[in-house]
Each structure stands twice: as C-alpha cells, then as structure tokens.
Write a structure and sequence with these properties.
By secondary structure, the chain is α/β, with parallel strands linked by helices. Helix content is 38%, strand content 15%. The strands form three sheets. The protein has a seven-stranded mixed β-sheet, sandwiched between helices.
Length: 466
Amino acid sequence: MYAETGSQWNVAELEDAAHRHLISPAEEMSKLGTSGGRPLFTSADGIYIRDSHGRTLIDGPGGMWCTQVGYNSQPIADAIAAQALRICYNSPWYSINGPASELARRIAAFAPGDLDHVFFTTGGSSAVDSALRFMQFYNNVLGRPDKKAIICRIDGYHGSTHLTAACSGRAGNRPNFDLALDNVSFISAPNVFRRPRGMSEEAFLDMLVAEFEERVETLGPENVGAFLAEPLLASGGILIPPKGYHRRILEICRRHDILYISDEVVTGFGRCGHWFASEEVFDIVPDIITFAKGVTSGYVPLGGFVISDAVLARVSGENARGSFYTNGYTYSGHPVSCAAALANIDIIEEKGLLAHVREIAPYFQEEIRKLGELPLIGDARGTGLVACVECVTDPDAEEATDFDKEVALRVDRYCYEGGLIVRPIGSMCVLSPALIITREQIDDMMAILRGSIVRVQDELKAEGRW
Ligand code: PMP
C-alpha cells in the first residue's frame, strides 16, 4: 500500500524502498542500497519545496532549470486532468490531437525567423537526438551521405541517449560508457573565466572562432553536418560565450551548408526573458532549436525541436525524392503533455513572466556578482535567471581542483540546512529559480548562499586548509 496519501508519510518505508529498488540517474554504485543521502521531497508550492523532515526550502535550481511558473499550479493541474479524461492518448503514427496541433502553432508563432515546424518528443535528450537524426536524414536525402560529422563543445551537455551522450563533452558524464563518437568532434568550451591567462576576451573569441573554422577545414566541410550548441552552457557551468560568438560561428556554418542546432532545452521558455534566447539574447536565427523542460514547467515530460521552413523545404514536397521520414516515439506530441504546455504558456503570457524576468534578472545578476567579492568565490556569473558562483581555493590553478569541488559541496550542504537548495556542479553552485521569483525571494536566496559561503570560509581557515 502506497504510504504517501494523507498528511502522514511513512518516511522510513519510502526511503527503504528507494534504497532497495530505485536507481537514480547519478548513482555512486558503492552506495547503492545504502543511504544515498538524497532528500525525499514531499510537496511544493510556488518556489518552495518541502522535504520529508518538514523543512521548507527555496528551490534555487528550479527543479532542474524547469519549473518556470512554479509548483502547485491549479490551471496546469486542471488542464492535465481535463485532457486525461477527454482523450489521454492517440498514436502520433496515424493520427493527430488537438493540443499538439495548437501547441505547434503557438511555438511556431514565437520561434524566430522561419522556424515554423515542430516535432515533439518526450524530453530534452530525445529532442536533441531527433534533431541530430533529422540532420542525418536530411543529408542522406540530399545525396550527401558523408556530411554527418557533428561539432560540439567540451563541457556541453545534450542528453543521455547514445548519440546525445556522445555529443556531451562533460568529462564527468563519460566514464564507463561506450560512446558513439565516430562522427563527433569537440572544440573548446567558451569558458571566459578559464580562458588562457592574459588573453583578452576579444582575442579569446577570435581563438574560439578560428578553432571552429579550422575544425571544419580539417574534417572537410563536405563531411560536417551540424554544429550543436547550447546558447549558454548550463550543466557545464553557466558558461556564457563572448558577445558575437554564436553569430560568427553561424556565418561559418552558412558558408559550408552546416546545420546550426541551438539546444535551448535550458534557455527556452523564458529563462532569459524571451521564449527563446537564440535570437533575442544571442543574435542568431539557427536552423533548428531544441526545447524541453520549461515548455511544461516540469509538470509532465515533453520536448521537441522547431525547424526552419527553408531547411525542411529542401527535403520535402517536390524535393522529397520519395523519402520517408520515420523517427519518433509512442508519446511524440502526447496530448496530456501538450495540454499542460498550453496551460503553461497561457500562464507565462497572462502573468507577463517574460517581461518580469527581463525586469528582475538585472537585480538577480547584480546580487550574485556581489557574492563574487567573497574571497572563496573566484567568479560569479550568469544571465537572465540563471547564475552560479564558482569556488576557487587556489587562484593559481588553471582548472577547478578536487578541493574546490569538496568546498562547493560543503556550501551546498549549508545552504540546504539554511533553507535553500542550490545545485552543486563541480566547483560551482548553480541557481536557476522559477520565473515567478520576487525581489524579496531573491534577497532570501542570496542571504542564505552568502551565509553558507562565509561559514565555509571561516571553517576552512579554522581547519588550516585554506
Ligand atoms: N540539453 C540540455 C542543454 C540540457 O541541459 C539537458 C538536460 N539537463 C538535456 C538536453 C537533456 O534533457 P532531458 O534530461 O530532458 O533528456
């Protein structure tokens, strides 16, 4: 009997069940079956989460960059229930449903340029995977079977399918798996903070663009199918490329007929104050934009990509050359997920959340940068409603050290004790709160984070470790 109903939680039983039977996506295998130390979250409202000990916490990472309109939204819950009762499922292989059709229309309306056709998947990994498979389909139909290489970045993250994992350049995600690397090529991350010592940001940008151009030449433009990039590297540590980076790379892509795939799984749906960040924040209209997460504010799984008419026209209609596109899922365009997304978009519009983010983000960024003045923080950065502080114990080290990472985990622990969830990624603590966050709530978040950093600084000094 499921013990979660009512106000009484049988916490011990649920924790025991998790330890015995649940495998998480990030599992230290030596600890499987013991206490993994993961909190059990029981309910949530707005930007707040409650854990099984009755503690109320500010959800700093917004779930995982996804709870745009906040928890406990009645209109989204109603839309899910109504659609589940109306028609919970239809096969996308031989039928269409109302919510998917309407959602495609809405997304096409606010996607940049001529990005007008939407393909739905079940999340971010499947969205990127499908975009890459589209690139393969496209070049096969165009009679260019060799034009398949994907150029992506070290420290990028694009998902957990066979192909998207191969395209994810974060070292921590890679050990002990076999990766489909034959057509994948990595270039440097646009990590401004860790750029070569003494190099100006302009020179760094030139270096990054030159590296891309050289890689295209080395591989041969006739062999390069796509450049795959997050507008800002999120899981890789909130890396915001120098101004002009995407634009200059896009120009090279255009010259060589390489598809530019902008992975907006994190930046889409308002995180940077716009439906998508590619055009308004980073000044490009890519060929394909992938999305997930914020499209439903995390209420139900959904993802997809939106693609330009110009690209699609080359392999459809009279240019189809008899080709048949077959890629997709039982749950592509799931009606309940699409109904949730429509309700979510309505809320973002009715509450003016894009404008709210544009208004409040400068304050959020200003406050996070103030934390950058603390001695333990080497860099504090971000844009829109996404930011991080990076712990640096040794300013001479070129890379984050194991000690930096240990320190970030300690900051994370004290934040939790103080009532704030942050996401520790390596030496960083990351924030990407729900878009509904207020100035006062930002103040609360920053006060807890500051207090935790100061506490760690004091402890490290007392321990003689820093
Ligand atoms: N792309 C990016 C940029 C992401 O951050 C993520 C997930 N964090 C994904 C793709 C994969 O999405 P999902 O976990 O929904 O499969």
